[in-house]
Amino acid sequence: MKKYKLLIVCLVLAMCSCTKDLVSLDYSEINPNIFPKSAADLEAMVNAAYYPVRGSYGNGIFSTSEKGVMFLSDATTEILYGPYGDQFLATMHNFRSSDLAFTHYYDDYYNKISMMTNTIDLIEKSTVTDDLKKRAIAQVRCARGLLAYTLYDLYGPIVIAPLDLLKNPLKEEPLARLSNDEMVAYIKADLVAAAADLPAPAEAEYGRFNKALAKMIQIRLALHEKNWQEVLTLCNDIIAYGYYSIDPDYVGMFGLEGAKNSRETIWAIPCDYQGTSENQWQLMVLPAVFAPKGGFGTIQSTWYFYDSFEAADKRKTLLLSEFTGTDGITYNRANPGTLINFGPIPLKIDQDANRTTGLTTVDIMMYRYADVLLSKAEAIANISGPNQEAMDLITRVRTRAGLTAKPLASYASLAQFNDLILLERSHEFWCENGQYRADLIRMGKFVSRTQEVKNSTYTGPNKVVYPFSQARIAEGKGKFIQNPGYN
């Protein structure tokens, strides 16, 4: 384990009205006796907490490139197929502790949790008003809870450095990973506290955290733990805000201003051409010969996934199964070349044909109200068995997709109903936040689906979590235990 050092030099960001207005500032020699003293000081520290949970190839965990969570997570499922490189390792579940693409999430971001812990301590000791402190700490705790949940979902329990150790940076003390119960309690405590003091959805600035997001991450945590009653309670809390609704235009939500204008969006990451927060998805998925503006074509979907949609399903609109390239060739399933031979182009978002760089202004959609409805349906079915209330929630999501209701009689068993939930989740949330991987794991189908779709001989029960790097294991001096199957 690395030495934990008190942060004395911190690169932070300053926001104006929303994330698109970020400006880099350099605050040096942070001293708890003199900093922060004003609302502006607090804002700078809060913005530093948003920094690692944005989209950025170099240092944002929700990058839409292969460095971000969604890209490789969806590549471990039937949604995406990577023909080479790290995405091929993800596709085949052939990742090992020597593969930096799978160990870097922990290596690059676990210390950001420590940074946020120090930030909270500095805010608590500041001389600003209690109200300003409360609002600032709520945002930092939401960021810390989100980041801790993300790493927990990828690796299982992680190391959490306590504040007293962070205050003694010269003391080198290897730490063990938390137990599962301790990890869940840590994440939940942050998110519960954040939800209490964050603004309501109607009052929050776009791109900033709100009560519903804190509860939505709690829902994902409770789903992970199969705590169905907690899932149900949290879903009802978000519904009771009376703010969110299902957007009638599924494709439009992923347009240039779609996320910002939709009442379905719980949280999206604002992006711009300048790369304050980056979305380079078109660059990742569009082939070089795609007109009018191509990309690198680094990953495809699968024909298995495409065929799982009903014919009228609007959600497959931007799974592009045919296009005519700038080379004059029409590529389709019958003539795929090497561009769509594994599956269609998983564009998902507006192609932003007028973009002048590899980046786009389409915001990164992270969490939506549809997830609340499908989570509630799953919770009801697992508590009381499949019933019409649960099916009606699924129908609300399917109706927006242009589909008819499913008869409850055809999904009378819990196994059948959960299969329907899983299918709807894949169709609804493909190439968004990467959480479908967790859905497959929860349903016990992560390994079998990869064997079925990709004929992988590398997958196995241990692949439900990623490995830690050997550097972290060595630094742990026997206290930091590697995940099974990666030694």
CATH architecture of the domain at 39-241: Alpha Horseshoe
Mean pLDDT, to the nearest integer, reads 93
Helical/strand content category: mainly alpha
What's the total number of strands?
10
Overview of this protein structure:
Residues 1-20 form the signal peptide. Its main location: membrane. Residues 38-212 form the SusD-like N-terminal domain. Residues 350-457 form the RagB/SusD domain. Pfam families: SusD-like_3, SusD_RagB. The chain is built from 18 helices and ten strands. The model is unreliable at 1-32 (pLDDT under 50). Helix 2 packs across helix 3 and helix 8 (211-225) runs antiparallel to helix 9 (228-240). By secondary structure, it is mainly alpha-helical. It has helices at 39-50, 69-75, 85-92, 100-124, 130-155, 163-166, 180-197, 211-225, 228-240, 258-261, 281-285, 303-307, 369-384, 388-400, 414-429, 436-442, 446-454, 470-475, and strands spanning 9-14, 23-28, 55-56, 60-61, 265-269, 319-320, 323-324, 330-331, 345-346, 364-368. Strand 3 (55-56) and strand 4 form a beta hairpin. Among the domains are: 39-241, Serine Threonine Protein Phosphatase 5, Tetratricopeptide repeat, CATH 1.25.40; 366-448, no CATH class.
Brief rundown of the structure:
One of its GO terms (cellular component) is cell outer membrane. Belongs to the SusD family. With 487 residues, the chain is mainly alpha-helical.
